[in-house]
Amino acid sequence: MKDPIASLLPLSPAALHIMTAVAGEERHGYAIMQEVARQSDGRYRLGPGTLYENIEKLIGRGLIREVARSSSGDDPRRRYYQLTTFGRRVLSAEVTRLASVLRSAKMRLATSNSGDAS
Amino acid sequence: MNRLFYRGLIRLHPRAFRERFGDEMLCIFDEASRLGSGRFIADAFASLARQWLFHSGLWRLAVGAGLTALLIVGYAHSEANGQRAAELRYEAQQKPVPPLDQAEFNREAARAVAMLTRLRDSSGKTSHRLHPLHAVSPSDDID
Fold first, then answer.
1. Which residues of A touch B23 (CB under 8 A)?
2. Angle B99-B101-B103 from CA coordinates, rounded to 5°
3. Chain centroid to CA B29: how far?
4. Which residue among A91, B45, B86, B99 is least enclosed by CB atoms within 10 Å?
5. By the 8 A CB rule, do A54 and A14 touch?
């Protein structure tokens, strides 16, 4: 039987950023957009359409969920999203995979740099 | 004005998506469009195209329409080619056949016979070279 976590990897850049944004605390859509821009130093900006398309997919796969949060003064149209336990495991597996890719890339770059120097 | 336009774009999204996320998209637009609404409108257009093409199954219709168009174009092309071939055949049939020039006929016939003779000689040599086990010459069969 196929591993349910491995079948979801690699995550798309949008999914990775959104899941990372809601990993620490629950956030509403606009806060997710701002957090994604902050994570990427403004290089990766999601529009609302792209954001909610991805949120719909992530909810469908059980990676994030909507949570109730009503605070006074908050716009009632806002909904909050949070990482699920399964989503946390998938994000953790993706981070491990990316770390391995980075390690491998660094090693190869170091090898090619030493080859260039000789 | 831009808000109205953006709202119209949201309304064009598939119903399930619009009902679930439409209000939130508009909420974000209200909060952030002061920084520039162009990016939001471009994103809504892109989202609209993706939603209808890939998520609603409309892409199947688009692919089907494309294939049908290809088949129609191919059929029309082959029909045109068939008609042209028929025209050429008709023209060839209508063309008067020039009278036979006896001297030229003899010359061409002699050339053809010489060519066939050369061909026969060369093929005989080749077959002996290529098949050493058949090293028996045709004259041996007579015995």
1. 77
2. 170
3. 46
4. B99
5. yes
Alpha carbons A82 and A87: distance in angstroms, whole number = 9
Which two three-digit tokens encode residue A29? 């859509």
Q: CA of A47: how far to CAs of A28, A69, B25, B60, B139, in Å?
A: 14, 23, 9, 27, 92
A-proximal residues of B, 72-131, CB under 8 Å: none
Domains of chain A and CATH, by start? 9-117 (1.10.10.10)
CA distance A92 to B82: 64
Q: For chain B, what is the mean pLDDT?
A: 80
A115 touches chain B (CB under 8 A): no
Query: How is residue A78 written in tokens?
Result: 């806002």
Stretch B25-51: mean pLDDT, rounded?
87
- Find residues 18-37 of chain A whose CB sits inside 8 Å of chain B: 28-30, 33
Res A54: pLDDT: 95
Q: What are the boundaries of each domain within chain B?
A: 2-56, 60-97, 102-132
Say if the ipTM goes beyond 0.90: no
What is the distance between the alpha carbons of residues B73 and B78, in angstroms, rounded to a whole number?
9
**A18 or B63: which carries more pLDDT confidence?**
A18
Smallest Cβ–Cβ distance between A30 and the set B28, B42, B50 belongs to B28
- H-helix or E-strand containing B73? helix B58-94
State how far the alpha carbon of B11 is from the alpha carbons of A16, A28, B17, B40, in Å. 28, 21, 10, 15
Q: Do B50 and A28 touch (CB under 8 A)?
A: no
